[in-house]
Amino acid sequence: MERGYLLHLRPYRESSAIVQLLVDGQGRVDAVARLGSGKRTVKALLQPFQPLLFSLAGRGELKNLQQPEAYAPAVPLGGDALYAGMYLNELLIRCLSHGHAGEGLFLAYHQTLMRLALGMDQACLRYFELALLSELGTCPSLEEDALGNVVQADSHYSWRPQLGLAPDSRGDIAGHTLLALSNRELQSEQLRQAKLLLRQLLAPFVGDKPLASRELFRRRQGGNQPA
């Protein structure tokens, strides 16, 4: 049996659905799930943030989901943390493909959900984004700039897509933010700069279409968007 989480579900034919899953050791897997009918339908089980056990059958890119069952209670997310969880799911769907499946992301995703269950935590979102970039093979060093020099805490930097982290006296990102992000020790005053950098790094994978979860954040916060 495999274990994983549902990222997204969409109806398929009369009594089935296409599900996008994050599977431990495999990353993103797309599969067809037969939803069934009656009181104990599979659809009632296939919900976001519900840890699942299941089997996958088939040799093609689109698998068949078989024997799904819950192996633990659903991760309880509410308020801003719920929107943060939705953001994680949407981010994974945008960034992961069959070519970049994210085989090593399951534990980081699970740990991030568990942290969010304790309350909204922007820092853990930044650390997950960093893990995603590492899995995609595009995470730059945060301790050296593009010239190979050690990042200085009291210096400033900017991200240049064709070059990397460049020293820049007018740059938006302080060296101490880069070092704190690298060490997973972000402080509240560093969160805005870390978010700015990570959005720039993820932009080639996310694309130009706005993330729906970010829009929900913005509306909930009256224009102040935490994720």
From TrEMBL:
Q: Residues in domain DNA replication/recombination mediator RecO N-terminal?
A: 3-70
InterPro entries (UniProt xref) = DNA_rep/recomb_RecO_N, NA-bd_OB-fold, RecO, RecO_C
Leader sequence range is: none
Cited SUPFAM superfamilies: Nucleic acid-binding proteins
Give yes or no: UniProt keyword DNA damage: yes
UniProt keyword annotations, A-Z: DNA damage, DNA recombination, DNA repair
Its family remark reads: Belongs to the RecO family.
Q: What does this protein do?
A: Involved in DNA repair and RecF pathway recombination.
Protein known as = DNA repair protein RecO
Q: Top-down, what is the taxonomic lineage of the species of origin?
A: Bacteria, Pseudomonadati, Pseudomonadota, Gammaproteobacteria, Alteromonadales
